[in-house]
Design a protein that fits this description.
With about 140 residues, the protein is mainly beta. The protein has one domain: Jelly Rolls. The protein contains no helices and ten strands. It is globular. The N terminus and C terminus are likely disordered.
Length: about 140
Amino acid sequence: MDMLEQTVALDGPVLRRRGGHMLEPAPIRADWILDGTPRRRAKLLAHGNTGGVALHMWDCSSGCFRWTHACEEIIYVLEGEALITRAGVRHALRMGDTHVFPAGSHSLWTVADYFLALACRSAIPVPTSRARSKRGQPPRS
C-alpha cells in the first residue's frame, strides 16, 4: 500500500506524496467536461462486507466538469483545491476539508491544478423527498 507522509511546517501540516498511489485511470464522461482536459484516476481502498459502503481514493488534474452523484458520498480532501458549485452555492474545498454530496445531487467542479481526496460512498439508495409521505414516513406499498 502506498503511504502518505505528513510533516509539520511552521504554517501547518504538509502532505507529500510517495509514489503515485497506484491509482488507475477513471475517466470523466466526455459530455460532462466543460473546459480543459481533466484526467481522473481512482482506486478502491476498502468496502464493507455487505457491499453497502466503499472507500475510494481519487485524484484529478486541472479542468472544469459536471458530476452527478449516483449515491451519497462524503469526501475528505488530502491535497489540492477545487471549487464546486452545487444547488447554486459555491464551495472551495481545500486540504483537510470534508464535504457531503447527497445521492442524486449535481455539481460543477473546477480544479485549477491538482486535487486528491478520499471518498466514502454508500451504495445503498437514499430515499428522495418524493418517496416520502407528508409525515416524513416512507410511502406504503
